[in-house]
Design brief:
heterodimer, A: mainly alpha, 71% helix, disordered N terminus, B: mainly alpha
């Protein structure tokens, strides 16, 4: 894909392949309908699995936000989980800090027993989620300034370093409970009510992310980040402000990840830095594996990948109990080594017309250039 | 934090203590980092399970020590065992990612790291282990304080020097070493010259695993091992190789010793729980420093 610099060029591209540029195709409506149906019927049909399905939607969100960077822009981050943890802590601290002293509440030696009224709770969650999203996006802007000069594997290692460092630093910060963590305000209502409440929020967040990204990829911004993926130097030469685009893309990822972090923290009810907030070796690697399993750089790939991966994960828990982590690691390796283009990527290669891609007979020169 | 800094000034012997500990541990970091530089330089694979190989080597020593044999005897067993493991890993997995883009190898080895961590956790449990070498700890007076040095640290330093010399001699003198260096320079040209590069890659990866295992045996005796401590060792190797560049042995050794000392100081000044942060912080610093260096050559639209 070439970078498009002028509005005129874009119109030419639009007329050349009309189906590819439309925001929604017929297949998209079918898939989206199926997901909406499952999302709404899921907790009604399987009330015992509400928590699990809510986590599934968060997984879908993870894979999509990772794909903004990894798939569409070619910047493979191993530390996107940082924004999940950051969002979780910002949300929790806001929820508590609005009504009482955070230091006293989180102190492990003298656990502050502060009872939140229902109004306080809901206001806290709402404001906390907004702060989490904006705070994470701002952190992304600051960190982007530091790490975006890094390319390829250095970027991956650098972001991995950030996520690892964040876990350790939070673990040494007394004000937010240090390594022992602290409990989140309790939901004022029944357990079922809580799971449904957060289920709705998780589902909404995943759908909002999907719609936003779907729209984003159809705009000029989507083309620009694709151009950065294909050749950053050329994109720059064409007049794309690469640094600004990269930072904006990372901020978008961080925005939604921050929300997901705030939600997950409230769902588990207890947050702590290493296992819950910054789980680099679990969620952090899962989001990459899910996007790759589905097919990176496609809109439906991360969604399908996340759903399939979550089901595989639950299956390994049931059938390989005790060995589940080993089995999961093996699945990740097999996925990366043998099946890298992912499900949607493979389908796209096999049946391009399903995706509205018209394959032209390539001249030998064009084929060489593509390689 | 300032108290600790102050302490370093009033009691200079503490500096000597930290420096010595840092150098002893840094020598071992140099081994693992050299292995990474080898794999990175020859086959362009960023091996993110470097630290897991180290920890696996450590468990060889711990297991043999547990059976009542001196853990030092685990060295040859660990080297041979991990050489075979590295070879098998290459044949099954790495051979398929060498040709692909760099992120694939990074992610695939990260996946392997998770499998090894969890496998070790299942096999040996999550406890922190030490292989007891049974050597006494000596102390001597210097600069108005007593400095303690465990004898095993000194021996391990000697072994490190010996192993490093052996590897360098192997690379310089043997036929295989020559082939590895040729492949590192240009894979295609090496192929044209009749070198079986596939064999060279497999050997390099296996050699890396063996070097890491040797480092792990020493780590288990002078420090601690635990199934999940591998990632820090991987990060250390990356810090060292990124700072020194591959194919620069002197640089790797200097960077490793420097990192060892910096880590000891970081642990002392900021508190022991911040030692890992020091390592990761060093990584970020090195990356940023590299970036500043590069930005002179890069003309971006700003």
């Amino acid at each position: 894909m070439t970078s498009v610099t002028e509005e005129k060029d874009r119109e030419v591209a639009t007329t050349a392949e009309p189906t590819a540029r439309r925001v929604f195709t017929f297949n998209d409506y079918m898939m989206f309908g199926a997901i909406l149906l499952f999302g709404i019927l899921g907790p009604i049909l399987f009330p015992n699995y509400t928590f699990q399905i809510a986590v599934l939607w968060l997984m879908v969100l993870f894979a999509q936000t990772w794909d903004v960077m990894g798939g569409q822009m070619g910047y493979n981050s191993l530390g996107n989980i940082f924004f999940f943890g950051a969002g979780m802590y910002i949300c929790a601290v806001t929820q508590i800090g609005l009504f009482t002293d955070v230091g006293a509440y989180t102190s492990p030696s003298d656990p502050g027993t502060f009872n939140f009224t229902p109004d306080q709770y809901y206001i806290g969650v709402a404001v906390g989620l907004v702060f989490a999203a904006i705070g994470s996006a701002l952190l992304a802007a600051v960190l982007g300034w530091i790490v975006f000069g890094l390319r390829g594997p250095y970027f991956a290692i650098g972001t991995l370093g950030i996520a690892l460092a964040a876990g350790e630093l939070i673990g040494a910060w007394e004000w937010v409970g240090a390594g022992s963590g602290f409990p989140i305000p309790v939901y004022p209502g029944s357990g079922d009510g809580k799971s449904l409440f957060y289920y709705a929020l998780c589902f909404g967040a995943a759908i909002a992310t999907f719609l936003f990204l779907k729209w984003l990829y159809s705009t000029r911004f989507g083309l620009a980040i694709n151009a950065i993926r294909d050749d950053e130097e050329k994109a720059e030469a064409m007049g794309i402000h690469t640094m600004r685009h990269k930072t904006a893309a990372w901020m978008i990822s961080a925005f939604f990840l921050g929300i997901s972090g705030g939600l997950f923290g409230n769902m588990t009810g207890f947050i702590e830095p290493l296992e819950v907030a910054f789980p680099v070796a679990t969620f952090g690697i899962f989001m990459v594996a899910m996007a790759l399993l589905g097919g990176k750089g496609t809109i439906w790939g991360p969604v399908l990948g996340a759903i399939l991966f979550h089901i595989l994960k639950e299956a390994t828990w049931i059938y390989f109990l005790g060995w589940q982590w080993v089995a999961l690691g093996v699945i990740i390796i097999i996925n990366i080594v043998f099946f890298q283009q992912g499900i949607v990527g493979w389908l796209q290669e096999r049946y391009p017309h399903w995706f509205g891609i018209e394959v032209e007979a390539r001249s030998p020169g064009a084929k060489e250039a593509a390689e | 934090m300032l108290d600790n800094l102050n302490l370093l000034v009033i009691a200079p012997f503490l500096n000597v203590q930290l420096l010595l500990d840092g150098l002893f541990i840094g020598a071992i970091f140099a081994l693992a980092a050299y292995g990474l530089a080898l794999v990175w330089g020859v086959m362009n694979v960023k091996n993110l399970c470097q630290g897991e190989f180290v920890i696996m080597g450590g468990y060889f020593a711990w297991y043999i020590g547990d059976m009542g044999i001196h853990p030092m005897f685990a060295m040859p067993v660990a080297i041979v065992g991990m050489f075979a493991f590295g070879w098998a890993t290459y044949k099954i997995m790495i051979a398929r990612v060498v040709e692909k883009d760099m992120f694939t190898s990074l992610l695939a080895t990260f996946g392997l790291a998770i499998v090894i961590q969890q496998g070790l956790n299942l096999a040996f449990g999550p406890e922190v282990q030490v292989a007891d070498s049974g050597f006494p700890t000596r102390s001597f007076d210097l600069l108005g304080g007593s400095i303690t040095v465990a004898e095993i640290k000194f021996y391990s330093f000697l072994i490190c020097c010996f192993l490093a010399t052996a590897v360098v001699a192997f690379m310089k003198l043997s036929r295989m070493g020559q082939a590895i260096r040729a492949t590192a320079q240009d894979v295609r040209a090496a192929k044209v010259m009749g070198i079986d590069t596939e064999q060279v890659f497999a050997f390099t990866y296996a050699l890396n695993a063996a070097i890491c295992a040797a480092a792990g045996v020493l780590i288990s005796m002078i420090w601690v091992i635990q199934p999940f401590y591998g990632i820090t060792h991987s990060i250390r190797s990356f810090v060292i190789v990124t700072a020194a560049g591959f194919g620069n042995l002197a640089g790797v050794i200097m960077a490793a010793l420097g990192l060892g000392v910096a880590e000891q100081y970081g642990g002392f000044v900021f508190g022991a729980e911040m030692q890992q942060v020091t390592v990761v912080g060093m990584l970020l610093l090195v990356l940023i420093w590299r970036q500043v260096q590069m930005s002179r050559y890069r003309q971006a639209v700003q």
